[in-house]
Amino acid sequence: MPYRLHMLLCAGTGCVSNRSLEVKEALEKEIQQRGLESEIQVIATGCNGFCGVGPIVLVQPDGIFYQQVKVRDIPALVEEHLVKGRPYKKLMFTPSKEAEPIPKMNDIPFFGKQMLIALRNRGLIDPENIEEYIARDGYKALAKVLSSMTPEQVIEEVKVSGLRGRGGGGFPTGLKWEVCRNAIGDEKYLICNCDEGDPGAFMDRSIVESDPHSVIEGMAIGAYAVGILQAYIYVRMEYPLALKRFILALDQAREYGLIGENILGTSFSFDIEVHRGAGAFVCGEETALIASIEGKPGEPRAKYVYPAQQGLRDMPTLINNVETWANIPVIIQRGAKWFSSIGTRDVSESEQGGSTGTKVFSLVGKVNNTGLVEVPMGIKLREIIYDIGGGIAGGKRFKAVQTGGPSGGCLPEELLDLPVDFDRLLSVGSMMGSGGMIVMDEEDCMVDVARYFIDFLNGESCGKCTPCREGLRQMREILNRICDGKGEDADIQKLEDLSELMVEGSLCALGGTAPNPVLNTLRYFKDEYVAHIKDRRCPAGTCQALITYRIDAEKCTGCALCAKHCPVNCISGEPKKLHTIEISACIKCGTCYDACRFDAVIRK
Amino acid sequence: MKKLTITDLEKLRQKIQEDHTVREGKALATINLHMGTCGIAAGMRKVMTALLQEIEAKDIKNVRVSTSGCAGLCSREPMATVLIAGQPPVKYADLTDEKIRRILNEHVLGGNLVKEYVLAVGSERVG
Ligand SMILES: Cc1cc2nc3c(=O)[nH]c(=O)nc-3n(C[C@H](O)[C@H](O)[C@H](O)COP(=O)(O)O)c2cc1C
Ligand code: SF4
Ligand code: SF4
Ligand code: SF4
Ligand code: FES
Ligand code: FES
Question: Is B10 a domain residue?
Answer without folding.
Answer: no
